[in-house]
Amino acid sequence: MGKLSTTQGTIDRDEIGLLVPHEHIFADLGPMEAENWKDTDPEAVIELIGPEIERAKEAGIDALVECTPEGVGRRVDIDLAVSEATDFPVVVPTGIYQEPSIPQWAREMGIAELTEWMLDELTNEIEDTGVRAAWIKVSTDDDDPEGLSDDEEKILRAAARAGAETGAVIGSHTLHGNVAHQQLDIIAEEGYDPSRFIWIHARAEENLDYHERAAKRGAFVEYDWIGGHDQDDQTYIDLVEYMTERGYTDNILLSQDRGYYDPSQPDGGEVDPYTYIVEKFLPKLRAANVPDAAIDTIVHENPLDAYCR
């Protein structure tokens, strides 16, 4: 687990001090049928996002994970253009978003075909960009607390098979704790290790028993709305204290879900800086009842444990 695939090629783990594990450079949150993402000029994204990347570098951030998959406007060519313009490594995914945004081509594929598609992006390159995917992003329907759709399950099973062959971590946008555990069951059924799963947006689940049980199974539990979503920092400090006190320091990921250029908005919309977690949140966390060694593990080691392979 010593190499990190990025837009700047494969980087040794020791070369990255601070990797923020859940951010965005480009994502289309408008109706997918409008296809706003298709015609975006990379130079427009560089103009808007480039200064925020420079601020992140000045704040001590060495790389970030771009979490936009197929179905919500993935443009790895744009990620690469921003990376090259700022001399900054970006970690990009293969994978597919949730209902109802699953592309028709993915609905028509079987598990074996989807597995091969993911494997190609994880071992060769994404489209013609020369960029290799580092990880697999999947998702579940925010409005369905009962379980996965047939297509979401098919995509997850393909992800588990591709992960088993490559060691790539699977991260899932999942708002409901019971659904996260269904996903862990499916990953295990497919022969992959549940410890190679990131429960993205775990904060949305208020029952902390689900958090603790996921960590006990080895999964990463990610709190990634820091600095936004109308929640104050104490919410996340309390979560970190809860999990570290129970022995799950190695399972926590912290990020912001910030950025990004949205082509469905005029001029890409408003951008939230990537630096909140470093400049605002971590000083508060260090002042709380969390040991410095635990914070250093969460901030510096866990993201690399998750994304390196």
Describe this structure in words.
The longest helix is centred in the N-terminal third of the chain and has 17 residues, at about 40-60. This protein has about 300 residues and is an alpha/beta fold. The N and C termini lie close together (about 5 Å). The protein contains ten helices and eleven strands. The strands form three sheets. Strands 6-7-8-9-10-11 form a six-stranded parallel β-sheet. Strands 3-4-5 form a three-stranded parallel β-sheet. The protein has a two-stranded antiparallel sheet with strand order 1-2.
Name some characteristics of this structure.
309 residues, alpha/beta, six-stranded parallel β-sheet, 14% strand, globular
Chart the SSEs and their pairings:
Layout: E1 3-6, E2 9-12, E3 19-23, H1 42-58, E4 63-66, H2 76-86, E5 90-91, E6 93-95, H3 104-108, H4 111-123, E7 135-139, H5 150-166, E8 170-173, H6 177-189, E9 197-200, H7 208-216, E10 220-223, H8 233-245, E11 252-254, H9 276-287, H10 292-307
Parallel strand pairs: 3-4, 4-5, 6-7, 7-8, 8-9, 9-10, 10-11
Antiparallel strand pairs: 1-2
Helix pairs in contact: 1-2, 4-5, 5-6
Q: Could you provide a short overview of the structure?
A:
This protein has 309 residues and is α/β, with parallel strands linked by helices. Helix content is 41%, strand content 14%.
